[in-house]
């Protein structure tokens, strides 16, 4: 079977599952349980998953509390857009930013959860 072939007897559908299917799939798969609101069944325009990426401060502006203010504002905005309940906020941080994120409540997710990444080569360049 080629890498991109769907196994016999299965159909691959693009898009998102319904909220009910999402909640059922997480529960039946042994993943952390989520409510229908967390799965997107809340009011329109509200979300549950958030990713903070690429926070950076130029060297001449560091050690003045700017990153802390920016992160706190981002977290407040996330809270205002989150579905009822708890928002799930993830990030990938370089080592120098670790203390900033820990001061603002971020914790290592291991061993319960694991963050992973994959960097691919751009074949077009």
TrEMBL record:
Do you know which Pfam families this protein is assigned to?
Acetyltransf_7 (PF13508)
GO molecular-function annotation terms?
acyltransferase activity, transferring groups other than amino-acyl groups
Where is the N-acetyltransferase domain positioned along the sequence?
51-107
Cross-referenced InterPro entries: Acyl_CoA_acyltransferase (IPR016181), GNAT_dom (IPR000182)
In its UniProt entry, what is this protein called? Answer: Uu.00g020320.m01.CDS01
